[in-house]
Amino acid sequence: MLAEKKKEQRQRAMEYRQRLTDRELLKKSMEIKKKLFELEEFKAAENIMFFVSFKNEVRTEFMIKEALKLDKNVILPITDREENRLLLSQLKDYDQELEESTYGVLEPKEEYVRLMEPNELDLVVSPGLAFDRELNRLGYGGGYYDRLLSQAPQADKVAVAFQIQIVEQVVTGEYDIPMDKVVTEQEVIS
Q1: At what angle do helices 61-69 and 22-38 cross, to 10 degrees?
Q2: What distance lies between CA 103 and its chain's CA centroid?
Q3: Distance (Å, rounded) from C-alpha 76 to C-alpha 22?
Q4: Residue-wise burial string across 96-113, b where 16 or more C-beta atoms lie within 10 A, e elsewhere
Q5: 27 vs 24: CA distance, rounded Å
Q6: Which residues, 6 or more positions from 51, have their beta carbon under 8 angstroms from its beta carbon?
Q7: Which of 106, 125, 129, 181 has its CA 20 to 30 A from that of 165?
Q8: Positive or negative, the Cα torsion across 23, 64, 180, 101?
Q9: Is the model's pLDDT at 100 over the cut of 90?
Q10: How far is C-alpha 62 from the geometric centre of its chain's CA atoms?
């Protein structure tokens, strides 16, 4: 029953995001970046984990490049499908060190992998399909972020999402980890 409800919610959330034009995606992403970079959690953080945006997610490329210019340690996830987990690698050069993984997502090339541990993270900028005002997050269904976040209790958990991804109530399960804040182009939910 729970899995079926989550599946429906995921489908609806993806359909909402697909309605955004490239121009809207970029404009809204710029607003989200501005709000994210103004957060005290962001300013104080040294080790920040970003995700590399895929398809119609909040655009993160310019956020990552800007964070690097601000001398932040930018950490990116590498999906380890065999172990069903995310490995963490420090990024130094966005344009040179990434390549498309099997699933089309940009990840560090093997020669640029600089592994880090979850307990070294200060801030995790998280993706998701839907969020509610209680800061619950609906992910893509693999549990990768929930597993990672359970190993990084010291890190601030901030999701970036479009306002259309805020729903009345996210269907949650036992292992789902809520966010500390959700940043949209219109507001910061905390």
Answers
A1: 30
A2: 17
A3: 24
A4: ebbeeeeeebbbbeeebb
A5: 5
A6: 57, 60, 76, 77, 125, 126, 127
A7: 106
A8: positive
A9: yes
A10: 14
CB-CB contact of 69 with 93 (8 Å): no
DSSP class of residue 160 equals E
Residue 137 burial (C-beta neighbours within 10 Å; 0-12, 13-18, 19+): buried
Task: Tell me the pLDDT band of 9, cut-offs 50, 70 and 90.
Answer: confident
Tens of pLDDT, residues 40-92: 999 999 999 999 998 899 999 999 999 999 999 999 999 998 898 999 999 99
Contacts 24+ apart (CB under 8 A), 59-66: 59/25, 59/26, 59/29, 60/29, 60/125, 60/160, 61/94, 62/29, 62/30, 62/33, 63/29, 63/33, 63/36, 63/37, 63/125, 64/91, 64/94, 65/94, 66/33, 66/37
Tell the residue number behind the tokens 């399909």, with chain if given.
129
pLDDT at 61: 97
Give me the pLDDT at residue 1, please.
62
Helix (H) or strand (E) holding 40: helix 40-44
- Strand-pair category, 123-126 with 130-131: unpaired
